[in-house]
Specification:
alpha/beta, Rossmann fold, two-stranded antiparallel sheet, binds adenosine monophosphate
Length: about 220
């Protein structure tokens, strides 16, 4: 099962992709997470990506396409893509490379959220640098302020989650990534889902779309 989850930053792609991966036993491939790992390991790719990420701009397509082609190739049996494709060109390259192997994306889900919700969600987001658990200062606070419930590590804010960078990430989204929704809509069904509300409810709607597909696979 090959799924693409689209949506603005803060739409809940990461949260829902984790749940989807667990429920259907497929791999969660997040381009942002892979890039952050490359940075933490100090690789050449990580160094090249750094300044783009910190300012909320997109990392150039050639770097991303190579990185994600490798990841997709390894997870051939099934995956949910989070944060990729983020340009029409990335989507076209992905489609071409899947078609060359006789495959295609099975379902595209698009999470829709209001800008104000995005800004509130992202600026309040905190994560554990050790285990990756994600919290929100208001909507999903840890038991002890600023400390991970799972391993007691002090929580951090992603450097690109500040209000100024979030505004740029949103602007980048509308200019470069929103057209990916129209690209997919021109050739197949895209499932638009209102993702402003409670994550549990949104997950139920997503599963309602994916369960029948999983039964067929
Ligand atoms: P994310 O964790 O998905 O919000 O991604 C964090 C940052 O990584 C983005 O703001 C971009 O700078 C970069 N990035 C992630 N995925 C892509 C992509 N598909 N194309 C270009 N840049 C990306």
């Amino acid at each position: 099962m090959k799924v693409v989850l689209l949506g603005a930053p803060g739409a809940g792609k990461g949260t829902h992709c984790k749940r989807i991966a667990e429920r259907y036993g497929i791999v969660h491939l997040s381009s942002g997470d892979i890039l952050r790992r490359e940075r933490a390991e100090g690789t050449e790719l990580g160094k090249k990506a750094q300044s783009y990420m910190d300012s909320g701009s997109l990392v150039p397509d050639d770097l991303i396409v190579e990185m994600m082609s490798r990841a997709v190739q390894k997870a051939k049996a099934g995956y949910v893509l989070d944060g990729f494709p983020r340009t029409v060109n990335q989507g076209q390259v992905l489609d071409r490379s899947l078609a060359a192997q006789g495959g295609e994306i099975d379902m595209v889900v698009n999470l829709e959220v209001d800008d104000q919700v995005v800004v509130e969600r992202i600026t309040g987001r905190r994560s554990c640098p050790k285990c990756g658990a994600v919290y929100h200062v208001k909507n999903m606070p840890p038991k002890v302020d600023g400390v991970c419930d799972k391993d007691g590590t002090r929580l951090v804010q992603r450097p690109d989650d500040t209000e100024e960078v979030v505004r740029n990430r949103l602007e980048t989204y509308y200019r470069q990534t929103r057209p990916v929704v129209d690209y997919y809509k021109s050739g197949r069904t895209v499932h638009d889902i209102d993702a402003n509300g409670d994550a549990g409810v949104v997950a139920g709607v997503i599963f309602g779309k994916l369960d029948p597909l999983a039964r067929k696979k």
